[in-house]
Write a structure and sequence with these properties.
By secondary structure, this protein is an alpha+beta fold. The protein is built from 16 helices and ten strands.
């Protein structure tokens, strides 16, 4: 009953200062709106960039890298074992880049419960023969179906179909930069020179655009069978095995485990994209910092308005205390006022924030480098709305707490004597 009376008094004080109440609520609404819109837009942008790079990067990549021998022959020879041996200009071992026992590795990975998908790959260099000019290129032989399932390969195809790479013998999907430089398109026949000097003719069945111009100028895809023919290697020849995990956070530990178990090099996604992830983290941090700063500024506005209200309502506070209301009752009245401004202002801010995000989501964003994107990217994560609602209430509570405590300490005798 007493709480109901305190709420009624707080409502009367709010309505008595409608203009100031409206200004305070608009401050909270504006802050929450910008917080939601800014964070949604920045997160959407981060997700877009993640899609360009991280979604096309395997969680763990198994490969073989040519390295110098850890122990040189002079260190093994008994006659030199007692001396200090200094070897300069150590050369790399003469060896193949192929993964040994690739079939056994794949079977072991398929039986691992932590693994959700495996995409074998062959990477080799080649030259695109454009008339009298040879253009440097990189050819990836892929398992077409698995590559599309794990890395959304078809999202980046702007001409032709990705599945033709599997169905059409001796076919190739080239980057847009290569197609522009060679003035070629789907259905044309192009010629490549392999690292061993062999000439190879392939039919263009598609053109892809990754959004990264430097990659589009050199990268092309063929099927694994075609790649093995190009390098003149048997059917078990693989240079890479790409692994997708159920839990991305396990990638560093799993990479170390696989490297030790299979005797190959292993690169996890965090190590491969360390700088990129740092950039995404900093962008997100800046978005949160700006949004919370807006909320704190709105809190100072509420603080000032409540202070002014207390000075103007000294008579009312004195009458309340003279008629039996305690200091804590007066403090509750002003806290109810502050929380009311925070709750209703924050609620409107959430609605306007969603509306502004939806508006940004409809703004056209067409660029040749991102063929799959038509509008600005926006994230509607529920976490942003929960954080914004929580901060709107907390900020306004502390903004109202100190003025409310001041009001609770007002001595009614001093106020009445002053009158």
């Amino acid at each position: 009953m007493k709480l109901k009376l305190l709420i009624s008094i707080a409502g009367s004080l709010l309505l008595a200062r409608r203009r100031q109440t409206l200004v305070a609520a608009i401050g909270v609404t504006f802050s929450i709106t910008m917080f939601i819109a800014l964070l949604g837009f920045m997160t959407g942008l981060n997700d877009l960039l993640d899609g360009l790079v991280l979604n096309r990067t395997p969680h763990v990549r198994l490969y073989k890298e040519l390295q110098a021998a850890e122990r040189q022959p002079v260190a093994i020879a008994p006659e030199y074992s007692k001396g200090y041996n200094i070897v300069r200009s150590v050369k790399l071992k003469s060896d193949l880049l192929a993964l040994r026992n690739s079939g056994n590795i794949i079977r072991a990975l398929e039986a691992d419960e932590r693994v959700t998908g495996i995409a074998p790959k062959i990477v080799t260099q080649a030259f695109y023969n454009a008339g009298l000019t040879d253009l440097t290129g990189m050819i990836s032989g892929i398992d077409v179906v698995e590559e599309n399932r794990l890395f959304r390969f078809s999202d980046y195809i702007i001409a032709g179909s990705y599945i033709d790479l599997k169905n059409v013998p001796n076919s190739i999907i080239i980057g847009k930069g290569i197609a522009d430089n060679m003035l070629t398109g789907t259905g044309d026949i192009i010629q490549l020179t392999t690292p061993k000097g062999d000439r190879f003719q392939l039919k263009v069945v598609g053109i892809f655009e990754s959004g990264l111009a430097e990659i589009d100028k050199v990268q092309s895809y063929v099927s694994i069978t075609t790649a093995q023919k190009m390098v003149n290697e048997p059917g078990n020849y693989l240079t890479d095995i790409q692994v997708q995990l159920k839990d991305l956070k396990q990638a560093p530990a799993v990479a170390r485990e696989f490297a030790s178990l299979f005797g190959v090099q292993a690169m996890d996604i965090q190590a491969a994209n360390a700088q990129f992830e740092t950039g995404s983290f900093i962008r997100t941090l800046i978005s949160y910092a700006v949004g919370i700063t807006l909320l704190i500024v709105a809190g100072f506005g509420i603080y000032n308005i409540l202070n002014m209200m207390i000075y103007e309502k000294m008579d009312s506070i004195a009458i309340l205390k003279a008629t039996g209301f305690s200091g804590s009752d007066v403090q509750r009245v002003f806290l109810i006022i502050a929380l009311s401004i925070g709750f209703f202002g924050g609620l409107l801010g959430l609605l306007f924030g969603w509306a502004l995000s939806a508006l940004i989501d409809q703004v056209p964003f067409v660029t040749p480098s991102l063929p799959t994107i038509n509008t600005y990217p926006v994230s509607y994560s529920i976490h942003f709305y929960l954080i914004a609602g929580f901060f709107s209430v907390i900020t306004t509570y502390f903004a109202g707490f100190f003025p409310a405590r001041k009001a609770s300490r007002v001595d009614p005798v001093i106020i009445i004597r002053g009158k």
